[in-house]
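Q: A reviewer asked whether we had any structural model of the full assembly, not just the individual parts. We don't, so I'm hoping you can provide one. Inputs are below.
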Amino acid sequence: MPKNVHDSILGTIGQTPLVRLNRVVSDIEATVWAKVETFNPGNSIKDRMALKMVEDAEKAGLLLPGGTIIEGTSGNTGMGLALAAIVKGYKCIFTTTDKQSKEKVDALRAFGAEVIVCPTDVDPEDPRSYYSVSSRLEKETPRSWKANQYDNPSNAQAHYETTGPELWEQTEGKIDHLVVGVGTGGTLCGTARFLKEKKPSVKVWGIDTYGSVFKKYKETGVFDKHEIYPYVTEGIGEDFLPRNVDFSLIDAFEKVTDRDAAIWTAEIVRQEGIWVGNSAGSAIAGLKQLKHQFKKGETVVVVFHDHGTRYVGKMFNPDWMAQMGYADVGGPTARELVKNKTVTELVGVEENDTVEHAAEQMRKNDFSQIPVLRSGRIVGSLSEAHLYGSMVSDADIRHQPVRKIMQKAFRYVDIETPIKLLAGMIHPESPAVLVRDFPADKTYILTGYDVLAAI
Ligand code: PMP
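A: Here is a predicted structure for the entire assembly that you could use as a starting point for your response.
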């Protein structure tokens, strides 16, 4: 067949361009190239592994003609699976979480998939989680096959067979560093395995997010549940260890905050004209944090996983950026307030402590609200008015665990959030925010009084 002519859309997967980055990395001495995966037909790198998983399952007799593909997916894998399903005649049922962009869910439905949205803030083992729901559907649906991108070796293998060789060829073997956001681990580990076989000196950097377990596990071997919290960044980081993350192939992880990821997502298109998604922002922010690792004359490759269209309601929406505290409005930040002596580091109560104990803590510390923790993780809050109301209406409640009456957890904000944006986040239904200093691993509570004193 002539060049670039295909039997179906599936033939257009892969062979994406490598584009030199010029402005966003002006502070880096090495040459930085981006593998721009938006050129795939589903607009993300996940088309590669979705097709490979489907074809391997067909060969193994796991996916039968007219069958149903089931998967828990944040969107991009679903898009790749849906493309393959359309061409090959399968049905798709996907479970996803309520934190994913609406655009991603709408797009999956446009491709004819059934999408079930599940809560984000539950443990993977919880029957409501998107992992558990997809496993249950697989049992209940006849002729169904669950792709299981987290543990399915075809995921990493797709990148060993395509992404790795493409990068080797496109850099003419000059690649020295590979920088990739890690979710299932398939992209990074499949690509890295190929490149390290060709050139063992290639350094492999995994980009992780605060709220995920990867970095600490790599550095200490400890799976620390306290690292987990519901972060905003999409596509990377996990609260468990997928089999496709081969820690032996990754030299080091770098963690990026939601705020920096969002800011850099918006900057890439402004500075380079390359319209890519949230994990590309994380990757660039992480790459800049690592800049001293990249020497003059070296070749660095960063992978841009998906397209900016999937984030028009978020990182490309100024109102959302302001609501999240990410907009650059100038002036002092929460960091200045935290420096202030009147703001103390976080004190909370455990959810199984008694209501009486919580009341005592609040009285002793002169708090009008207090966070509620589960084994050190923040899961709720308690305000003075609610505590008082509960104790008046039920005298016995004082001996009950706090979890019986706790309210919604206070929201987290980054320590770099401008005070001007903080003011709008504190109101009667949400009387405090939790300020996170991620690199220092410190959390502070700020109330309306603290903010008022500053403005
Ligand atoms: N970025 C985005 C936008 C993604 O959808 C994913 C897949 N979860 C990743 C990064 C991470 O890729 P991988 O699963 O191959 O580690």
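A: Points you may want to mention in the reply: The chain has a mean pLDDT of 94. The pocket of 4'-deoxy-4'-aminopyridoxal-5'-phosphate is lined by residues 46, 74, 76, 181-188, 234-236, 277, 279, 305-306 (CB under 6 Å).
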